[in-house]
Write a structure and sequence with these properties.
The chain has helices at residues 15-21, 32-40, 96-101, 109-112, 123-134, and strands at residues 3-8, 23-26, 46-51, 57-70, 80-95, 118-121. The protein is an alpha+beta fold and 140 residues long. It has a single domain, classed as Roll (ph1033 like fold). It has a 6-stranded mixed β-sheet with strand order 2-5-4-3-1-6. The longest helix has 12 residues, at 123-134. The chain starts with a strand and ends in a 6-residue tail after the last helix.
C-alpha cells in the first residue's frame, strides 16, 4: 500500500463533500508530475485529503478504489482521474505550517513542490501526520 496527499480547494470540493458523497471521481489534475504520481496509485492505497486556500491543512483520510483511468469528461487520454471513498476525518487537522516545521517532511514534494496536487508520502510521513492529528493542540 502506498500513501498520497491530495489537494483540493474546499470551496470546490471539500472533505465534507466526500463524506456526504461517500465516493467520488478525483479529477482536475493537469500537472505532469502530479499525473505521474496518480498513475502510480493503486486500489487500496490511502490518501489524505488536504484543503488548500485559507485552511492549508490535512483534513481526512480516503482510499483509492479505482486506479487511474482517462477522465471521462475530457477528450484527452493523458488527463487522468482516480476514484476515492471517504474513510474518516482526522481528529485534528494538520496544518501546512506544522508539516513544514517537521523534519520528517524536509525532502517531501509537499513542501518542495507546493503546486503539486497529488503528492506521494512515505510510510514514516503518513504515520507522522496520523500522530500529529492526535496530538493535543499547543497552548498559545
Amino acid at each position: 500500500m502506498a500513501y498520497w496527499l491530495l489537494k483540493t480547494e474546499p470551496s470546490v470540493y471539500s472533505f465534507d463533500d466526500l463524506l456526504r458523497d461517500r465516493r467520488t471521481c478525483w479529477d482536475g489534475i493537469n500537472n505532469p508530475a502530479a499525473l505521474k504520481h496518480m498513475r502510480s496509485a493503486t486500489v487500496g492505497d490511502r490518501a489524505l485529503v488536504y484543503h488548500t486556500g485559507d485552511e492549508k491543512s490535512a483534513i481526512g483520510v480516503a482510499e483509492i478504489v479505482r486506479a487511474a483511468y482517462p477522465d471521462p469528461q475530457l477528450d484527452d487520454p493523458r488527463r487522468l482521474v482516480v476514484d476515492l471513498t471517504a474513510r474518516e476525518r482526522l481528529p485534528t487537522p494538520v496544518t501546512l505550517a506544522t508539516l513544514k516545521a517537521d523534519p520528517a517532511f524536509a525532502g517531501s514534494p509537499l513542501v518542495r513542490e507546493g503546486r503539486l496536487s497529488f503528492v506521494p508520502l512515505t510510510d514514516p510521513q503518513w504515520h507522522r501526520i496520523e500522530a500529529l492529528s492526535k496530538a493535543p493542540p499547543k497552548a498559545k
